[in-house]
Specification:
Elements lengths: L3 H6 L4 E6 L4 E6 L7 H8 L4 E7 L5 H8 L3 E7 L3 H13 L6 E4 L3 H4 L13 E6 L15 H7 L6 H11 E11 L4 H8 L3 E10 L6 E10 L6 E2 L3 E2 L9 H7 L9
Parallel strand pairs: 3-4, 3-6, 4-5, 6-7, 8-10, 8-11
Antiparallel strand pairs: 1-2, 7-9, 8-9
Length: about 260
């Protein structure tokens, strides 16, 4: 049951959704930024962790999916938008994770700076997830909704900000898992250079023989090993029916690949 404080912070226009085959229940805003497959895929690609930090957590989908999948012991959700942070707090409580998850209202840009916010603590995590905004306003039409625009719109050059924050928050040898657009690959590798290596590149395809629509990158802090292209995931067949492999990840809480 949600606490009165968490319930009071939630705006009335919400939806109540279940993901991972009902393993995770999510309150979300009916309009604006809403969780989709990206957050579930991001969590499914992550290795197991004692303490995970979800940057740009929104309503908490990716971070809480780690707990629902048994892939993390403790999760910190970082979200700058007060309304979304309220949803994240409510979702922690309604899924029974009050002892294992918390929300920190913070700007990712400040988290990456020396002397940044005290929470989450620098070097405290062995896993950082990131689902950063990735619609470049120079290339794509921008949403008129302010919350959706904040969550989805950023230039490729802003990737450096997210990678810097992950680097500061992770222990040596910790894992950073990022989901983005495939065309940002060069910018992603540039941002990782000198901080992360041994990057696994996992393409996500909407249909067979179609170009990838998402790219998941899983890298290790402090490594210098070159990146490796891993087998991709096809979400649906030519007729649009979900593939068995996608169902195993999105509904049955399986790993994107053994990690």
């Amino acid at each position: 049951m949600r606490s009165r404080q968490a319930e009071a912070e939630i705006v009335p226009d919400t939806t109540d959704n279940a993901v991972l085959g009902g393993r995770l229940k999510l309150l979300q805003p009916a309009r604006g930024h809403r969780a989709g497959h990206d957050a579930i895929l991001l969590a499914a690609a992550a290795p197991k962790a004692k303490h995970a930090i979800d940057l740009g957590a929104g309503a908490g989908t990716a971070g809480l999916a780690l707990l629902a999948r048994g892939a993390a012991e403790k999760v910190t959700l970082v979200e700058i938008d007060p309304a979304l942070a309220a949803f994240a707090r409510a979702n922690i409580e309604r899924n029974g994770y009050a002892e294992r998850a918390s929300v920190v209202a913070a700007d990712v840009a400040r988290l990456g700076r020396k002397g940044g916010p005290g929470q989450p603590k620098a070097g405290a995590a062995d896993l950082v997830l990131a689902n950063p905004p990735f619609n470049d306003p120079a290339r794509r039409r921008v949403s008129p909704d302010a919350a959706r625009r904040r969550a989805h719109v950023a230039r490729e050059s802003d990737l450096e900000t997210w990678v810097r924050a992950a680097d500061r928050l992770l222990k040596a040898g910790g894992s950073f898992v990022l989901i983005h657009r495939p065309e940002a690959l060069a910018a992603i590798l540039d941002a990782l250079d000198g901080r992360f290596g041994a990057a696994d590149l996992i393409p996500i395809h909407g249909k067979p023989r179609a170009p990838a629509i998402r790219l998941i990158v899983r890298a290790i802090k402090g490594r210098r090993t070159p990146p490796a292209l891993r087998p991709g995931l096809v979400l649906a067949d030519a007729a649009g029916k979900p593939s068995p492999e996608a169902e195993a990840v999105l509904r049955d809480a399986g790993p994107l690949e053994p990690a």
